[in-house]
Amino acid sequence: MAHHQVLIVGGGAAGLTVAARLRRLRPSLDVAILEPATDHYYQPGWTLVGAGVFSLEETRRNEAELIPAGVHWIREGVAGFQPDANSVTTTGGQLISYDALVVATGMKLCWDRIKGLPEALGQGGVCSNYSREHAAYTWECIQGFQGGNAVFTCPPMPIKCPGAPQKIAYLADDAIKRDPALAARSKVIYATATPGIFGVPTYAAPLREVVKRKGIDARYNHVLIEVRPDSKEAVFRVQPASPADSQGEESREEVISYDLLHVTPPMAAPDVVAQSPLAAASGFVDVDKHSLQHVRFANVFSLGDVSGMPNSKTAAAVRGQAPVLVDNLLAQLDGATGHGAYDGYSCCPLITGYGKTIMAEFNYEQQPVPSFPLDPTQERWSMWIVKTKMLPWLYWNRMLRGADHERRFIPGLKR
């Protein structure tokens, strides 16, 4: 049996950030990452791939180049968790024990929960920025759009980057309106399972104005359940607006024809996590939302998309979580109690068009926590530059390197 002081399951944004920070703060620590993938992608950039701003290759790096120096890379996946025995099994049949475990596997995309979608995706105008293989096809679909209905969907929460499904709708709307004749024979429909445009009221208000200004047909409580590529129809289950308003009304089906259909799939915790002793009823890792420490296994921690905190699942959330987790994990290894507390910080750069972004930053209480001394509810070209230039640089050069908080190297940044 191999043994490591800290075993990190998952070599994505969360796992790499924690590994790098652990090595920076305690260089002698024995840290291992369990990760089978050889490529690493900056997934927040895939909206811009689908909008023709980035190429997919610009979002890719070799995983080997990102593994921190001195960290052991085990090129396998996880097959099972045995927290009572402080061990995991790997897809290659290894048994690995640990002193502390960090679970950072990310989420899985559930394409097959939508009837007909796996067969339809990537052809006939059916696209998704959430798929590495098909993000570039979104831009092909937008460029080739000749009119009719351009439909963009959003599934029930939780999902990765809850703002992304509407960002591509705004960008596509901009692209369509470059040709007035095309715009005249087109309709952009945003059909979302959520009851409103965005879950944080402060930012929902300006987004409703964006929808109104653009003339987008926003349809709420719409859950995509089937794609019919032969007839080019999307089938939705429409829920009553609220239990108080339903007056016994049951859900109904609505069929929307499409000429372009961008689908955001339902998401869930990976089966290996959801079926393990680490999972809460939701399937996600059952951790305290402030300490990021497991509620039953004191030497287990989790962050990123697979963690069960009630926060918005974004890469920016990892930036807020990683320092807290590392501080508390090191304290646990030392036999002490950590005092790090995560406040639910997340950031969703809400692209509302080419050259326009609302930088939505908020915490567990859904209160704005802006990093810049500007009104965070306004669409700004400067925030577009932050989204397209600054954040990718920070990701590759600071966050994945375990650097200290951004306030130390961005003038004027308050956080």
Written overview of the protein:
With 415 residues, this protein is an alpha/beta fold. It folds into two domains: 2-107 and 269-344, FAD/NAD(P)-binding domain (3-Layer(bba) Sandwich); 111-266, FAD/NAD(P)-binding domain, CATH 3.50.50.60. It has twelve helices and 21 strands. It has helices at 13-25, 46-50, 63-66, 117-120, 135-144, 164-176, 180-184, 201-214, 243-246, 271-274, 315-333, 381-397, and strands spanning 2-9, 31-34, 39-41, 60-62, 72-74, 78-82, 87-90, 95-103, 108-109, 126-127, 148-154, 186-192, 217-219, 222-228, 233-238, 252-257, 260-262, 267-268, 300-302, 346-353, 356-362. The strands form six sheets. Strands 1, 2, 5, 6, 7, 8 and 19 form a seven-stranded mixed β-sheet that branches. Helix 1 (13-25) packs across helix 11 (315-333). The longest helix has 19 residues, at 315-333. The two termini are 43 Å apart.
Q: In CATH's first tier, which class of the largest domain applies?
A: Alpha Beta
What do we call the CATH topology of the largest domain?
Answer: FAD/NAD(P)-binding domain
- Can you tell me the CATH architecture of the largest domain? 3-Layer(bba) Sandwich
Number of domains: 2
What is the CATH superfamily classification of the largest domain?
A: FAD/NAD(P)-binding domain
DSSP summary, beta strand count: 21
Main structural class: alpha/beta
Approximately what portion of the residues adopt beta-strand conformation? 15-25%
Helicity level: 25-40%
Overall pLDDT metric: 95
* Radius of gyration, taken over Cα atoms and rounded to an integer in Å: 22 Å
Q: Give start-end ranges of low-pLDDT stretches.
A: 406-415
Oligomeric state of the chains? single chain
Total of DSSP H or I helical runs spanning 4+ residues? 12
Q: Mind summarizing the main beta sheet?
A: 7 strands, mixed
Gap between N and C termini: 43 Å
